[in-house]
Amino acid sequence: MSALESKVAFVSGGADGIGLAVVERFIQEGARVAVLDINQEKLAALQVQHPERVCTVCGDVTSYEDNQKVVELAVQRFGRLDTFVGNAAIFDYFAPLSRIQSEQLASSFDRLFRVNVLGYMNGVKASLDALKASQGNIVLTVSNSGFYPGGGGILYVTSKHAVVGLIKQLAYELAPDIRVNGVSPGATDTEMKSVEGVSRKSQPLNHIDGFHEKAAQAVPLKRIAAPADHTSLYVLLASNEQSPMTTGCVIHSDGGWIAR
């Protein structure tokens, strides 16, 4: 029997990158998945590929109503909700505070934190009743930047530290009904977008010159991750049978930053 047989998950930012890899792995493990993403084209391709196992909503994680639509659709289509995976995020192109224009600081902060932190809160809030009914769980994507400096700029690193606090507080607030944990990927070969206006050089993360080589050399395992490299940890934390006593924890999948 697969680890997530008969389970239903909601994955935000699930049409690309780590989110897409999680969706595909959850399906392999027997789950059905509701996906929220802003990319209609990629959502449509995902729906065509998995017509019986996936339902989708094209929307913005910063909108509570869009998150609510996904939960309602999941329950209507699949009858329940067992897991919320908060994954959507944007980057800041390593911009230090000194290089962010003063007139851009507030708007860049608002946009990045609304996606990276409020987006998770919206998904959790919208999922609470359904998860409580199923005695389900929450898994949030953190980052090595949630623990160490230098993996991003001031906005991204601070937002990911906030996600670690969010996991701990939610685990405290939602126990004993809902377990809350996180996965902390290191540098991964994805096209995570940067917040507009924070840098004139802003571009997708894996398009940066030398990104793959520098990221690989920065960690003891000496390689950059593919999105699928992290997915077993999401499965583990989403399975109440495999991790029944784990809450308030973040599992690192970052090539060994702590051992540097």
UniProtKB/TrEMBL annotation:
Keyword terms, alphabetized: Oxidoreductase
NCBIfam families in alphabetical order: PRK06200.1
Family: Belongs to the short-chain dehydrogenases/reductases (SDR) family.
Gene Ontology molecular functions: cis-2,3-dihydrobiphenyl-2,3-diol dehydrogenase activity; oxidoreductase activity, acting on NAD(P)H, oxygen as acceptor
SUPFAM superfamilies: NAD(P)-binding Rossmann-fold domains
Signal peptide from the UniProt entry: none
Enzyme class: oxidoreductase
Entry's EC annotation: 1.3.1.56
Name of the protein in question: Cis-2,3-dihydrobiphenyl-2,3-diol dehydrogenase
Gene that specifies this protein: bphB
Matches recorded under InterPro entries: NAD(P)-bd_dom_sf, Sc_DH/Rdtase_CS, SDR_fam
